[in-house]
Structures are given as C-alpha cells and as structure tokens.
Amino acid sequence: MRNTLIALIALASPLFAHHSFTMFDMTKKVTLVGTVTDFQWTNPHSYIEIDVPDDKGVKHWSIEMGSPSILQQSGWKFSSLKKGDKTTLIISPLKDGKLGGFLNVATLPDGRMLGNGPGQGPGR
Amino acid sequence: MKSMIPGACLIALLAPLAVHAQNNPPDLTGVWGVYRGGRGGDPKVAPPPATPLLLKPEYKKPYDEHQKLVAEANARGEQLATQGAQCIPYGMPTMMSVAIYPVEFIQTPKQITIITEAFSEVRRVYMGEPQKGFDDVAPGYYGRSVGKWDGDTLVVDTIGLKPSIAGYRNMPHSEKMHITERIRLVAPDYLHDQITIDDPVVLEKPVTYTLGYKRMPKDYEMVEFVCDNNREYVDKSGVVRLQLKDK
Fold first, then answer.
1. Helices and strands in chain A, H and E counts
2. Is the domain defined by A17-114 classed in CATH 3.20.20.220?
3. Which of A19, A39, B224, B231 sits between 20 and 30 A of B72, alpha carbons compared?
4. Shortest CA distance from A101: residue in chain B
C-alpha cells in the first residue's frame, strides 16, 4: 500500500526533466582514467569528453552528467574541469556498448571527488 | 431556529477573518522546491494522492496502448521519444513540477508571475481579471490564466492550451481543457498547488492532483536553463539515443 501511494504521488509529475536513464546500465560501474578534451557546462546536460588510453591506443568517451542546476548542488562549477586536465571517472556505460556513459563520480585534478547531483538520473 | 444561533454566531465571528485574509493575502513570492513527501517526509504537509485518471473509452484505448509500448521499450533499455527529450517545453500543467527543479513566484497585486527553472518557462496570472472565452485565446503552452483570492487560497483559472503539449501523466487533451488551481500555504514555507483538470471531450470526469513545494533557502538564485546542447536525438524507430562525439 505504501509503495502504491508513493507511486501515485510520483506519477503526478515527471521524474526527469529531459529523459530517463534507461539507455545506461546503472548496475555497471566502469572506471575511466584519462585526459579531458572538452567540458561542456550546458543544458539540458553537461558533458565530459575524455581520451582514455588503453593497450590498443586511445579511446574517446562521451560522458553525460546532470544539468548545471543539479550539478552545482554537488559542488560542481563551470570551471571544475578544463581541456587537458587528468581525471578519473566512474561511469555507468551505455547499454548498446558504444563509448558513452553516465557519470557517477569524478575525481578532479585537485583530488576532490564530485558526484552527479542529488539524484541518480540524468536530466533531473 | 434556536439551534441556528451558534452557527450564525460562528459565521459572524469568522466573517471578519475571511475579509482580512481577502485583503491581506499571503505573500507567495520566492523560490519553491519540489516537495513530494514520501520517505522521511512530513505527512502533515505531503501532497495527498491524486484522483483516478478516467479517460473516455475512445481515448483510453490508444492511451493504454501507448503506455504499453513505453513500458516494453523501457524493458528493452530504450526510451521512446518524449517532449522533454526533444527540449520542447512542458507547458501547463506539467511545467509546475518537473523532476526536482524549483519554481519561482513573483507576486504583485495585479499579476503573479511563475517562472520555472527547468526550461525557463514563464506564466502570468492576471489578478482580478475576467477569463476570456475559448474562442478568444489562441491555444499555446501556457494558455491564459486569471486569478483571485478565496480567503488565503489563490484560485487560478487557465484555458487556451494546445492539444499537442504533454498533459498530466501524458494524458491526451483537447482545446477545451480547463485547469483550476487552488494554491495555498499549508504550513509556513510549505505550499500546495491543487490542480483540477476538466476536459469534457477527453475525460469522463475531472481529475485532481496536488503538487507540493517547500520554500528554498532565501539566498537561492534560479539557474539559467537554455536547452542549447541537446545531444539526445530520436532515431528512425522513435527511440532516444545519445549523440557521441568523435575526436
């Protein structure tokens, strides 16, 4: 009954402003260690573009984050990352296997670890 | 007659209070965050459950079929296209509560302006003005809203909403949709917006639901939300995909 009540309340408004996170495998965590090529502080989402070296060369990943409104609630600023920064990201990858994902936690060059806002989904 | 005297006395006592509330409405100005109650919430200020959404049979069948397709796609790990995913503003009434984004009220005697953080949507409530007829308001995202105070409750009447915009729970609606809101402080810093949607074309009977808000810290500044970097796109099958960037 309690769950039903919560579901009824939740349905009164969309839980995501932009889109759900069903395209990402939120049960998986992948660690990316690499170099930022672009940090986009934009709506409806912010993005980290990152080059990640591996045994076969360098792979490029696009990592989606929340919106600036959501990100600032977990300490992010528009200047938190810049091109050339070394960073470590823990992400949930796309289910289709392409090189994209949704940020869980980033470790900034100064060692601070920032999450992805108070919620867990994109566009919140 | 004798038994009516206490009632009459009560009315006589309360009438000045009602007049006082009418002349001194609460000030809703400020930024309000979404408050759904739920786990850890205060049940005294949590919004009550909605009434059932009862669509007429000719609208219920396609609605149910679409909801089934949405659920099936979700089970496959795919999301079907939505208005929000394409960065199209929500409009009324959905704009009044989107995810966890706040809304700002700016109250003056003649106009109450409501600005949402998600998609920076704006609606204007003209106080004390008569509502126009359906034929006099071009259907749009926000329609035309007029308001008045009923004691300490702000009553807002809205018409003129285009059928193509997402409705409550994605319900279909016609140009005859009529929204009545009763907005009031249920406790200091807690606001409820009770929304009743009537649509004689689509609904068997009006549906009512309530949105809850909690006042944000006084130093909160609304954040800009211009959707100029939408990297989600809809593919040929109608599924939302993420546009990756090649080096």
1. 2, 6
2. no
3. B231
4. B242
Domain boundaries, chain B: 20-242
Closest CB to A17 among B78, B98, B224: B98
Q: Do A19 and B77 touch (CB under 8 A)?
A: no
Per DSSP, the three-state class of A87 is: strand
pLDDT tens, residue by residue, A18-62: 777 889 999 999 999 999 999 999 999 999 999 999 998 999 999
pLDDT per position as a tens digit, B163-184? 999 889 989 999 999 999 999 9
Which of the four pLDDT bands, split at 50, 70 and 90, describes residue B8? low
Question: Which CATH fold topology does B20-242 show?
Answer: Lipocalin (2.40.128)
CA-wise closest residue to A61 among A29, A89, A100: A100
Closest residue to B85, CB basis, from A18, A25, A98: A18
Q: Where are the beta strands (DSSP E) in chain B?
A: 30-34, 103-107, 111-116, 122-127, 144-150, 153-159, 178-187, 190-198, 207-215, 232-234, 240-242
Asked if B229 and A40 touch (Cβ cutoff 8 Å), the reply is yes
Task: Tell me whether residues A18 and B87 touch, CB distance under 8 A.
Answer: yes
Chain A positions touching B98 (Cβ under 8 A) are 13-14, 17
| Contact state of B36 with A60 under an 8 Å Cβ cutoff | no
Closest residue in chain A to residue B193, using alpha carbons only: A12
| Residue pair A114/A106 in contact by the 8 Å Cβ criterion | yes
Say if CB B198 and CB B51 are below 8 A apart.
Answer: no
Q: What is the pTM of this model?
A: 0.86
**How far is the alpha carbon of A33 from chain B, nearest alpha carbon, in Å?**
17
DSSP, res B50:
P
